Amino acid sequence: MPRNVFQMIPHRLGERKMAPNPLDEIETSPQASGDFSASSAPVHGQPDQHKVELATFEQGLQEQVFNLYAEVFGAAASSAFRARWRWAQQENLYPQDTYKWVLLDRNRVVGFLATIPLSYSIKGATLLAHTPCDYMVHFSYRFYGIKMMREFFRATENCVTCDDVTATIKVTQWLGAKQAGMFFRYVKILDGRSLGLHEGWERVPSVLWSPVTRTVRLVDRLRWGVMGKRDTVRPIDEFDQRFDRFYHRLSHSVPITVTRDVGFLQWRYGSDSPHAGRGIGVVTEGDGELIGYVIFFLSGGPSYIGYILDLQVLPMDNTEVAMALLSYAVEQLRRNGAWSVRYYHLASPFTIPDRLLRWYGFIRRGAHRLMVRFRDNQWAAIAENQNNWNYSYGDSEASHASK
To answer: Which of 12, 18, 139, 253 is the most exposed place for a label (fewest CB within 10 A)?
Structure first.
């Protein structure tokens, strides 16, 4: 794509002054361009000679969307996308507010953008915010992708999105979203074989991975000889009304959070979700009420990654319970065959301190950006401050494809 292509876009969107070209610093190779990259397969004709139209998604276009997803991201990713379509797009908590758009070139789908609407509690008020998701444009049409993003910001009042794709981040910010914080990815190695999956390590003889694994296990045992308390965590199978009561206590303690009540949890981690095989661990008070819980999930091969999807405690500074829950999840994932564990962490007074993650052997590797746009200035001021958030990886659309 020419580096000056955004000079063709008007410099005003509504009454807001546009920032400079959001793609000035983006490489234009398919590998560097993320969701804009799509496929480099040839297309008959020249797209700039056609009238590329933005349209509301209709059900009859579904197979074309799946095919485009395969062309952009590969067959395996398209299969996972197809499997979560009904859960995410038709049977979510707000199906009537689940907007979707396509780009059409003479009735051929060359772009797609969907949304995930979620409820947020912000200073006692309940607001609906949308997350753009599954954003894809065929390589030959990628300039036209801006049409869908502009329509997204026109059609929605509020936006919360967590992304690590440079091109998408730049366009989202260019259209008015503000960075609210950095969502850092922490990784803990459980099995030496996980190192062999990384570039440069594949040449290390496999016989050396076993000593690495034994050393990691020994160090973890020594850590928990100091901390203890892991035996206070109990597994449960389903979310019950205690999670509702826990959420209502939580929502009175934090300025902004996803409405993480039992309805949300049952949808987000239910039998139709991408993480139906999740595990749940809880810590309770003497009367059986929750004082903390953790939700975790193990992906399949070849990487066998464990994910900490949500970890909550009350009160917020109860680090003993937080570490008991974290240790429990890690040990369950280890027993189930995880080679590594990922914990995505947005630092705030309402989340587990990152110093405890580092103490337990988690190493920071990469990050997502949390970006928001609230049209009401009062809510925007709250949402744009990282210190106001209680946010988990499982709350974000970025987690839906973690399989």
So the answer is: 12
| Burial readout 215-229 (b: 16 or more C-beta within 10 A, e: otherwise) | ebeeebeeebeeeee
> Torsions phi, psi of 200, nearest 5?
95, -20
Q: Which CATH class is domain 184-399?
A: alpha beta
* 5-160 and 184-399 share one fold: yes
User: 172-210: b or e for each residue (b if 16 or more CB lie within 10 Å)?
Assistant: bbbbbbeebbebbbbbbbbbbbbbbeeeeeeeeeeeebe
Per-position DSSP letters for 76-119, written without gaps between them: HHHHHHHHHHIIIIISSS-GGG--EEEEEETTEEEEEEEEEEEE
CA 346 to chain centre: 12
Q: Which residue has the tokens 């997502």?
A: 368
Angle at 303 between CA 300 and CA 304, to 5 degrees: 45
Tokens linked to 310 = 């949500």
Between CA 71 and CA 53 the distance in angstroms is 20
Q: State the Cα–Cα distance between residues 183 and 173, nearest whole angstrom.
A: 16
What sign does the CA torsion over 390, 391, 394, 397 have?
A: positive
User: pLDDT grade, residue 159 (50/70/90)?
Assistant: very high
CATH 3.30.1360.70 assigned to domain 5-160? The reply is no
User: Between 80 and 204, whose confidence is greater?
Assistant: 80
Q: Where are the domains of the chain?
A: 5-160, 184-399
pLDDT digits (tens, 9 = 90+) for 198-229: 666 666 666 677 888 888 888 888 877 656 56
